[in-house]
C-alpha cells in the first residue's frame, strides 16, 4: 500500500511521457491495435457495425462487457456490445479494465483531463473520478505509471466515440485478485451512482488465452455461463482455479457484485467468438465475448414492485404442499424431495421466505430475496433451511412436525428507493445495505410488532445489519423495497 502511494507521488512529481500537464492521456496502441488515421478508423468501425447480426437494442443497459484486443480480431465481437447499447443515453461511462503490465494493490483511477484517440479527446468525468478516490483513500489511488503502456481502457474509446456524443469517462484499472477490493469498488460505485439512470459500467476484457480452438470454446462457455448466472463468488473462484478465464476477471467480479447490489436481474450474451474465427489459425486462440446486463426495456419505468406477486389460490396451495412435504421429508430422512410441477407460474424464477411457527412462536425463518431458481424449488430449499439451518434454533425434530405451521412469503424483485419517504410501512419489505452490511425485514414485521417507520428502520439497521440504528438516515446507506404475497396453512 505504501509502495503504491510513493509511486503515485513520484510520478505526479516527475511526469510521464504519455500524459501531459493538462492530463490528456496520449494513445498507446493507435497504429497497432487499430488505425492511427481517423478516417480509416471510423470506416473500420462502421464496417464492424454493418457486419453484426440481429442485436437486441431495446434494453436499458446498466453494465456491458466488450473485448479489447486488436480490432481485426475482436472488433466484430465488440460491435455487438456497442450496437446493443447505442440507443441508451449515458453522461458518464465508467470503464474498468485489467492492468496487463503492472501489479498493484487497490485500484487506479485517472482523475481528470481526458484520453486522446485519433477521433479526438474523450473527457474524464472529473467530479465522479475525484469523488470515487475520496470514497476509499486506502485502496483507491491515481497511479499514472500503470496507464503508460495499458490498452484495456484505450481500445474501447473509438467504439464509444462512434456510438455516443457528449459523454465523459471514468477510467479505472485493477490488478490484484482481491475480492475485498472488488466489493469495496462495487459498493462505492453503487453509492455514487445512486438513482442516476445515465451511467454505464463498461468492463473491458478478453476471455481465454492461447488454447486450441475447441478447448477455448469450451472454457469460454463455462465462463459466460457463470457471468449469466450472476454469482460473483463462483465466477471469481472459477477463474482462480483456472476452470474459467478472463484477463479482466477482477473487473468482471466487481461488476457482478455491483449487479447484485443494484438488483439487476438480466444478463444476456450477445456474441462469442475467438481469434481463430477471423485469422483461421485454430492452434492458439484468444476468446472474445459481448455481454449486457439490464433490468427493463428502454422507455419503460421500473416495473411495479408488486408486478410479479400474484398467485392463484391453487398455486398457493401447491407451494404450501411443497413446503410441508419438504420439511417432513428432510426431518425424517435427511433428504429434500424432488419437485415437479406443470404450473408455468411456479417455474418462474422468484425469491421467497418460508417461516415456521410452533404453537404460535417462531421456530425458523429463512429466505432467498433474489430468486436464483424456479419458485417451486426456492420454496422447497427455504423450507428445508428454515427447519434445519436457522442459526437461532435447533433443527426441527420429528416429534415437533405435528405442531409446526408454515407460512410462505413470495417476494417481488427489490427496487431501490431514494430515501425512507418512499417506504410504505406494512406494504413494503425493506433491505438495508451499507459497506457489506445487509439486513432485511419482511413487510409483515411492521404489522406484527406495531413499530412505526422510524422504529422499523432503526431495528432493521441494528438487529439485522449490525449498523448503527440511525444508519438508514445516512445517504451512504442503500434502501431497497419489495412486496410479499404472504399465505399460510389454515
**Helical residue percent band:** 25-40%
Structural class: alpha+beta
**pLDDT under 50 segments (min length 5)?**
1-21
The CATH architecture term of the largest domain is 3-Layer(aba) Sandwich
Described by strand count, sense and barrel closure, the largest sheet is: 9 strands, mixed
Strand content: 15-25%
Distance between the termini: 60 Å
Query: Please, how many helices?
Result: 14
Using the coordinates above, name the CATH class of the largest domain. Alpha Beta
Q: What name is given to the CATH topology of the largest domain?
A: Protocatechuate 4,5-dioxygenase, Chain B
- The tally of beta strands, per DSSP, is 20
Question: Quick one: overall form?
Answer: globular
Radius of gyration: 25 Å
How many domains comprise the coordinates? Answer: 2
Protein described:
With 490 residues, the chain is an alpha+beta fold. It has two domains: 2-297, LigB-like (Protocatechuate 4,5-dioxygenase, Chain B), CATH 3.40.830.10; 313-488, Glycoprotein, Type 4 Pilin. The chain is built from 14 helices and 20 strands. It has helices spanning 2-14, 38-51, 71-85, 126-135, 157-163, 179-193, 213-229, 232-240, 249-262, 275-279, 313-333, 375-388, 444-449, 453-464; strands at 24-25, 59-66, 92-98, 107-109, 114-117, 120-123, 140-141, 168-174, 199-204, 209-211, 266-274, 285-297, 352-358, 361-368, 404-411, 415-417, 429-434, 437-441, 478-482, 484-488. Strands 2, 3, 4, 7, 8, 9, 10, 11 and 12 form a nine-stranded mixed beta sheet that branches. The longest helix is centred in the middle third of the chain and has 21 residues, at 313-333. The protein is globular, with a radius of gyration of 25 Å. The termini are far apart.
Amino acid at each position: 500500500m505504501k509502495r503504491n502511494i510513493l509511486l503515485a507521488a513520484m510520478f505526479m512529481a516527475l511526469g510521464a511521457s504519455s500524459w501531459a500537464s493538462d492530463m490528456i492521456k496520449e494513445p498507446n496502441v493507435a497504429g497497432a491495435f487499430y488505425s492511427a488515421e481517423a478516417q480509416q478508423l471510423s470506416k473500420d468501425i462502421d464496417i464492424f457495425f454493418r457486419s453484426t447480426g440481429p442485436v437486441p437494442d431495446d434494453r436499458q443497459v446498466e453494465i456491458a462487457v466488450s473485448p479489447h484486443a486488436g480490432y481485426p480480431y475482436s472488433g466484430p465481437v465488440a460491435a455487438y456490445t456497442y450496437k446493443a447499447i447505442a440507443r441508451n443515453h449515458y453522461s458518464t461511462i465508467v470503464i474498468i479494465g485489467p492492468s496487463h503490465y503492472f501489479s498493484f494493490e487497490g485500484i487506479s483511477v485517472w482523475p481528470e483531463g481526458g484520453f486522446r484517440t485519433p477521433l479526438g479527446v474523450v473527457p474524464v468525468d472529473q467530479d465522479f473520478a475525484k469523488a470515487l478516490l475520496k470514497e476509499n483513500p486506502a485502496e483507491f489511488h491515481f497511479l499514472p505509471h500503470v496507464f503508460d503502456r495499458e490498452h484495456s481502457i484505450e481500445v474501447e474509446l473509438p467504439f464509444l466515440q462512434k456510438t455516443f456524443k457528449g459523454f465523459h469517462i471514468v477510467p479505472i484499472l485493477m490488478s490484484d485478485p482481491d475480492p475485498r477490493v472488488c466489493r469495496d469498488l462495487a459498493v462505492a460505485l453503487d453509492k455514487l451512482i445512486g438513482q442516476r439512470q445515465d451511467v454505464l459500467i463498461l468492463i473491458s476484457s478478453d476471455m481465454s488465452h492461447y488454447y486450441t480452438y475447441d478447448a477455448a470454446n469450451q472454457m469460454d462457455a463455462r465462463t459466460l455461463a457463470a457471468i449469466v448466472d450472476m454469482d460473483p463468488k463462483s465466477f471469481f473462484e472459477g477463474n482462480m482455479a483456472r476452470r474459467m478465464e478472463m484477463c479482466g476477471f477482477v473487473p468482471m467480479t466487481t461488476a457482478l457484485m455491483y449487479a447484485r447490489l443494484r438488483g439487476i436481474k438480466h444478463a444476456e450474451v450477445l456474441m462469442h467468438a475467438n481469434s481463430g474465427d477471423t485469422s483461421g489459425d485454430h492452434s492458439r486462440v484468444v476468446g472474445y465475448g459481448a455481454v449486457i446486463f439490464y433490468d427493463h426495456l428502454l422507455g419503460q419505468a421500473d416495473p411495479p414492485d408488486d408486478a410479479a406477486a400474484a398467485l392463484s389460490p391453487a398455486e398457493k396451495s401447491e407451494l404450501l404442499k411443497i413446503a410441508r412435504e419438504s420439511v417432513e421429508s428432510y426431518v425424517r430422512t435427511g433428504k429434500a424431495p424432488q419437485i415437479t410441477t406443470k404450473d408455468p407460474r411456479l417455474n418462474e424464477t422468484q425469491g421467497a421466505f418460508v417461516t415456521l411457527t410452533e404453537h404460535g412462536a417462531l421456530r425458523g425463518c429463512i429466505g432467498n430475496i433474489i430468486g436464483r431458481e424456479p419458485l417451486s424449488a426456492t420454496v422447497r430449499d427455504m423450507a428445508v433451511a428454515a427447519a434445519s439451518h436457522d442459526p437461532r434454533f435447533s433443527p426441527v425434530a420429528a416429534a415437533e412436525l405435528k405442531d409446526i405451521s408454515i407460512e410462505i412469503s413470495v417476494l417481488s424483485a427489490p427496487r431501490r428507493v431514494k430515501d425512507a419517504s418512499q417506504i410504505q410501512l406494512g406494504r413494503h419489505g425493506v433491505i438495508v445495505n451499507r459497506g457489506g452490511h445487509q439486513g432485511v425485514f419482511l413487510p409483515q414485521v411492521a404489522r406484527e410488532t406495531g413499530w412505526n417507520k422510524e422504529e422499523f428502520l432503526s431495528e432493521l439497521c441494528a438487529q439485522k445489519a449490525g449498523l448503527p440504528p440511525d444508519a438508514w438516515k445516512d445517504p451512504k446507506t442503500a434502501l431497497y423495497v419489495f412486496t410479499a404475497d404472504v399465505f399460510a396453512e389454515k
